[in-house]
Amino acid sequence: MTIRVLIADDEALLRMAFGTVLEAQPDMVPVGEAADGAEAVRLARELRPDVVLMDVRMPGTDGIEATRQLVRTSPESRVLILTTFDLDEYAFAGLNAGASGFLLKNTRPEELLTAIRAVAAGDAVVSPRITRLLLENFRPHIPAGRAAGRDDGPDAGRAERLRRLTPREREVLVEVGRGRSNTEIAATLHLAEATVKSHLGRVLHKLELRDRIQAVIFAYENRLVHPA
Questions:
Q1: Residue 12: what pLDDT?
Q2: pLDDT of 90-110, one tens digit each?
Q3: Is 38 exposed, middle or buried (CB count within 10 Å of its CB: 0-12, 13-18, 19+)?
Q4: What does the pLDDT read at residue 134?
Q5: Quick one: which of 197, 212, 170, 172 has its CA closest to 78?
Q6: Domains of the chain by range and CATH?
Q7: Are 18 and 43 in contact (CB under 8 A)?
Q8: What sections of the chain are H helices per DSSP?
Q9: Measured between alpha carbons, how far is 117 from 85 in angstroms, rounded to an integer?
């Protein structure tokens, strides 16, 4: 399978650098470049890429709004947000808009390629440790939801979805919210890794979530986990 990648960044040199890295891979091909979010949305509709590398800050339609539109109009394309530590709030907003993961712009090429393959395969685990670190930095930007389990107010729908989970599925959700990989969860809960993957699939289905990153956000917003 060849992974088709659309590159969205307002810096031409970065687009060229990413394209060069992708072209050197036997299982990847850059199918287009966009200099802003609006162009990224348009090209995604036309080219139907598997993965969109999305810069956050771009003129006109920024990466967050572009991600929101892409999730709605091109759901087959998964978005990988590119960010820096000084843009934490933008990264969280991108994930909340439906991005499947995020990377730091200064990441090593091999980490970028691993992330693209993971996202293309439907796995939003780009880097659990980076996920934990960035989500802890997101604390001021995570909405303060009601305590999990309350059945009144605007979060009643979330509470109702939580009640669909079995105790074991809820345990898996908590561990996912802590940024742990399937391997780490299996060791913590004394389960086979394949069993963890099955539980996670049911969690996503029952909670009506797009992917693992959305499960992390759900766990934080519902206070199932708290940053250290």
A1: 95
A2: 666 777 788 888 787 888 899
A3: middle
A4: 57
A5: 212
A6: 3-137 (3.40.50.2300), 144-221 (1.10.10.10)
A7: no
A8: 12-23, 37-47, 63-73, 88-96, 109-120, 128-137, 156-162, 167-177, 182-189, 193-207, 212-221
A9: 23
- Provide the residue type at 206 as one letter: K
At 150, is the pLDDT very low, low, confident or very high (cuts 50, 70, 90)?
Answer: very low
- SS3 of 50, please? coil
Which two structure tokens, joined as six digits, stand for 110? 């091999």
CA-to-CA distance for 226 and 144, rounded, in angstroms? 11
| Cβ contacts of 177-182, under 8 Å, gap ≥ 24 | 177/215, 177/216, 177/218, 177/219, 177/220, 177/224, 177/225, 178/132, 178/225, 179/128, 179/129, 179/131, 179/132, 179/135, 179/216, 180/128, 181/125, 181/128, 182/125
Cα–Cα distance between 105 and 165 in angstroms, integer?
37
